[in-house]
Design goal:
Belongs to the thioesterase family. The protein is α/β, with parallel strands linked by helices. It has one domain: Alpha/Beta hydrolase fold, catalytic domain (Rossmann fold), CATH 3.40.50.1820. Helix content is 32%, strand content 16%. It is built from nine helices and nine strands. A nine-stranded mixed β-sheet has the order 1-2-4-3-5-6-7-8-9, with helices on both faces. α2 crosses α3. The radius of gyration is 18 Å and the shape is globular. It starts with 11 loop residues before the first strand and ends with a strand.
């Protein structure tokens, strides 16, 4: 363990809790949006959401151990293990509607967290589930990325275009980052789908139009996992379309949850809107 308490971790939610970050706490939120990062990612990946969503939304970003301010803590190398800790950390926040947003590995973790909360906390059905950059868990994806050599893993990261090239060229940074990335790929690879009751909440599926890892039929399969409505949106770009189109994604989140008042942007004029492509 790092010995650093949640009270000193930026954006932490309280003493003893290192799992959640609230970079812009909201006193009386209409909605809490819990964001779960991709393999190797950290809570700070969702910092832009705090500036793009309305003041009525409290963004709660999950921080997995083994990275950023938790870098000295041991990894959790299974999806189930992550879900156990995250569901426990979220219980005190269920006094307000909670929506879950996951990207890539985070989509699996978000889905299983929603299932866990419905099972363990009576009446705690999530307000909405947003799954990004991931086929439905019912679609089998065999992957051995976690078994690649360091050089091969770096090449894989370059292919996905979600890592700053300066990081890939910095051997010292890579030495620190690769163990977390490899661990998270292992968690995804060892995940096993277990049939169960469908969720009650709506699901919105978001993909990059050029993402080879999320074919349309795999994305559509999410609709079988809820009794609620399912919506599908495709944005220009690859697996990490989210980086470039965060503003458009946040508009999609607002529309899906009925929170349509955009926060004002004071630092620069608004960019031309990117309209997601819906598919059936």
């Amino acid at each position: 363990m790092s010995g650093r308490s949640a009270a000193t971790a930026p954006g932490s939610t309280g003493a003893g809790d290192l799992w959640l970050r609230r970079y812009r706490p909201v006193a009386d939120p209409a909605l809490r949006l819990v964001c779960l990062p991709h393999a190797g990612g950290g809570a700070s990946a969702f910092l832009p959401f705090t500036h793009l969503l309305p003041d009525t939304v409290e963004v709660v970003a999950v921080q997995y151990p083994g990275r950023q301010d938790r870098r000295l803590e041991p990894f959790v190398d299974t999806v189930d293990g992550l879900v156990t800790h995250i569901a426990e950390a979220l219980e005190p926040l269920l006094d307000r509607p909670v929506a879950l947003f996951g990207h890539s590995l985070g989509s699996l973790v978000a889905f299983e967290t929603a299932r866990r909360l419905e099972k363990q906390v009576p009446g705690s059905s999530s307000a909405h589930l947003f799954v990004s950059g991931r086929v439905a868990p019912t679609v089998v994806q065999r992957t051995t990325t976690h078994l690649l050599s360091d050089d091969q893993l770096v090449a894989k990261l370059a292919e996905l275009q979600g890592t700053d090239p300066r990081v890939l060229d910095d051997q010292e940074v890579l030495r620190l980052a690769l163990p977390a990335i490899r661990n998270d790929y292992r968690a995804a690879a060892t995940y096993t789908w277990r049939p169960g009751a469908p969720l009650a909440c709506p699901i919105t599926v978001l993909t990059g139009s050029e993402d080879p890892h999320v074919p349309a039929d795999g994305a559509r399969a999410w609709h079988r996992l809820t009794t609620g409505e399912t919506a599908f949106h495709s944005f220009p770009g690859g697996h990490f379309y989210l980086t470039e189109h965060a503003e458009a994604v946040c508009r999609t989140i607002q529309a899906a949850t009925g929170l349509v008042v955009q926060r004002p942007h004071l630092s620069s004029p608004p960019a031309a809107p990117v309209r997601p492509r819906e598919y059936s």
